[in-house]
Predict the 3D structure of the following.
Amino acid sequence: MRISRKEVFENHSRLVERNAVYRRCGFDVEQHLRFVLSKTLPLPGRILEIGTGKGRFLALLLAYVSRVTTIDVDRAEQRLARLNVAYAKPSGRARFMIADAANLPWEDHSFDSVVSVNALHHMQNLPRVLDEIFRVVRLSGKIVLADFNARGFSIMEECHQHEGRIHEHVPYRFQDLVERFSVHGWTAALRPGDCQDVLIAAKAPHVYGGRKK
């Protein structure tokens, strides 16, 4: 997919403008992405990202890992993500794919790590998506899921209203996900934040947010 320098910079200008709207509503995008990243790293081996979105987290993550396969169902959103990564020029590389998280096109245990940031609330069949994550990640792997908490959703709703839109999301509880991980034999730790919470799960010891659990 060919992208022009003009597209890259025009897209970045729009992103900066939208980030400013978020800040006025009380959500500093860069600050909160760094919080999620601090709880995410290290991510070992072959990495799958569920929900590319506009590529904000992907561009940041690629500064710390060599390669990420990222999926989304929205081609338009993923094109914006390509533009964002092109502007950031991280050292790592991304493989962009259009795919359904509820029906992943990979064999069992294909990835060492799976990460998803602010995407789960868009999943209409979240239990199925989780089953697919369990299927494609290796038993020695790591899973990191981050999403808005109650305060974060409230701010997102305000931001979308400011833009004349509705922030649609599927309600679920992170605590229910922790219990679901336990049923599947995974140990999950929940790291609460100001606007986002992060769930970190593994079947083998890992360093969680700088502390060994």
Notes: Residues 206-213 have pLDDT under 50 and may be disordered. DSSP finds seven helices and nine strands in the chain.
